[in-house]
């Protein structure tokens, strides 16, 4: 992306959406006062060879697991590190029961749980079990940071087509395929926010390990007045603990409280902005910056977009090559906006592999999932205590 891409644009949010604007409060902001917060550290990214290197692909963090002190978990290793994939499009760490030597009888003693990932149409079932996590670098050396969080220990997976959120952890037989009662290999680590309405009603802030840090370099976080819960995702690592110094030059957007899923004061809705295709109306949309996919997913009521069959699946439609996609953060009238844009098929490092597109009727939710390649040139941060989202352009 050229620096010229950062120049203000004057396109307006669709006039038909004007009545909706007052429902949202995301807009450019001076951000929170972080001058009193000093406790912070950077968790090192665990790197993998291309094509799975961050930010071409999702990042990973290395951790050691510490299960509850009970004979039922005697065979769960706390000496072998794992490096789950970090996914900002979901919330909650998921690991397979068989991989950890945890029996179904043990799972039955804990709260049943599920997560549905819409990009893969996969439903995960199991139980939420409390674990202590110790963070490490890619060599397995501890970095003196710990968290305590429920982990979804999975003993069942299936594909659920046409998933309806009212089904929760169930899926009708006619919608079910690839049902696996002995899954192995799942190491998926959701660190996102505002995802409950997308098949993840249990993905509340108490499941987010990065928001439930217990100690940093021996300091008890819960007893410290110097710790601001939140994180920043960067090329060189994941910053936990927001300070005035480590949030310089970010553009902030105030978030709206998430309602109906938890009473946690750190539960916030997705970011809102607008999306324009080929210079058309910038349409009010929910924005998701998702590390978990290399594609982009667009739902739009703009019937002028040009669609062609997907390169990866004949069932999907994608934006044809040569179309410009502009994503603007914030929706306050008169705000020209911080913007991320790309041209499909240009082979730039910051464009998604393709833009899977769904046309929706006017009045239905419009949204975009940018995919992970956004992070080629940008950083993001999430202030869970104050309810802010921030973006910063850093270039290639």
What is the CATH topology of the largest domain?
A: Cathepsin D, subunit A, domain 1
Low-pLDDT residue intervals, each spanning 5 or more residues: 1-26
Classified by CATH, the class of the largest domain is Mainly Beta
Any idea what the CATH architecture of the largest domain is? Answer: Beta Barrel
Number-wise, the strands total 26
The number of helical elements comes to 3
Number of domains: 2
Shape field? globular
Average per-residue pLDDT, rounded, comes to 91
The SS-based structural class is mainly beta
The amount of helix comes to under 10%
Strand composition percent: 35-45%
Keywords: Signal
Protein name: Aspartyl protease
Signal peptide: 1-18
Pick out its properties.
396 residues, mainly beta, Cathepsin D, subunit A, domain 1, 2 domains, ten-stranded mixed beta sheet, globular, disordered N terminus, Aspartyl protease
What would you note in describing this structure?
By secondary structure, the chain is mainly beta. The protein folds into 2 domains: 3-31 and 268-393, Cathepsin D, subunit A, domain 1, CATH 2.40.70; 41-240, Cathepsin D, subunit A, domain 1. Helix content is 3%, strand content 37%. The protein has 3 helices and 26 strands. The chain has helices at residues 18-21, 97-100, 104-107; strands at residues 28-29, 41-43, 62-66, 85-87, 91-96, 111-117, 122-136, 142-160, 176-180, 187-191, 213-216, 219-220, 230-234, 237-240, 251-254, 271-277, 283-288, 296-300, 307-309, 317-319, 324-329, 338-343, 355-359, 367-369, 378-383, 388-393. The strands form 4 sheets. Strands 3, 4, 5, 6, 7, 8, 9, 10, 11 and 12 form a 10-stranded mixed β-sheet that branches. The chain has a 7-stranded antiparallel β-sheet with strand order 1-15-26-25-13-14-2, with no helix packed on it. Strands 22-21-16-17-24-18-23 form a 7-stranded mixed β-sheet, with no helix packed on it. β21 and β22 (338-343) form a beta hairpin. Keywords: Signal.
């Amino acid at each position: 992306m050229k620096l010229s891409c950062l120049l203000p644009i004057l396109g307006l949010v669709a006039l038909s959406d004007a009545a909706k604007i007052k429902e949202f409060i995301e807009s450019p902001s001076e951000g929170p006062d972080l001058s009193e917060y000093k406790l912070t550290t950077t968790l090192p990214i665990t790197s993998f060879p291309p094509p799975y290197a961050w930010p071409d692909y999702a990042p990973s963090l290395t951790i050691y697991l510490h299960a509850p002190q009970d004979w039922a978990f005697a065979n769960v290793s706390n000496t072998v590190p794992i490096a789950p994939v970090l996914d900002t499009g979901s919330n909650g760490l998921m690991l397979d029961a068989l991989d950890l030597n945890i029996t179904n009888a043990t799972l039955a003693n804990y709260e049943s749980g599920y997560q549905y990932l819409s990009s893969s149409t996969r439903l995960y079932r199991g139980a939420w079990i409390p674990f202590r996590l110790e963070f490490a670098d890619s060599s397995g050396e501890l970095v003196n940071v710990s968290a305590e969080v429920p982990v979804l220990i999975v003993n069942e997976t299936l594909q659920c087509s046409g998933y309806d959120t009212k089904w929760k952890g169930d899926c009708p037989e006619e919608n079910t395929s690839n049902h696996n009662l002995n899954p192995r290999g799942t190491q998926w680590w959701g660190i996102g926010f505002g995802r409950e309405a997308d098949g993840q009603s249990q993905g509340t802030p108490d499941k987010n390990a990065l928001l439930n840090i217990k100690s940093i370099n021996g300091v008890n976080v819960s007893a410290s007045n110097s710790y601001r819960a939140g994180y920043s995702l960067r090329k060189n690592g994941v910053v936990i603990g927001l300070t005035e110094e480590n949030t310089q030059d970010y553009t902030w957007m105030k978030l709206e409280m998430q309602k109906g899923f938890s009473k946690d004061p750190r539960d916030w809705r997705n970011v809102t902005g607008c999306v324009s295709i080929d210079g058309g109306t910038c349409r009010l949309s929910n924005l998701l910056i998702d590390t978990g996919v290399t594609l982009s997913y667009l739902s739009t009521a703009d019937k002028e977009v040009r669609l062609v069959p997907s390169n990866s699946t004949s069932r999907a439609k994608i934006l044809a090559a040569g179309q410009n996609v502009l994503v603007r953060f914030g929706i306050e009238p008169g705000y020209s906006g911080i913007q991320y844009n790309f041209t499909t098929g240009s082979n730039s490092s910051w464009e998604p592999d393709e833009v899977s597109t769904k046309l929706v009727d006017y009045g239905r939710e419009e949204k975009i999932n940018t995919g992970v390649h956004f992070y080629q040139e940008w950083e993001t941060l999430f202030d869970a205590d104050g309810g802010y989202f921030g973006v910063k352009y850093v270039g290639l």
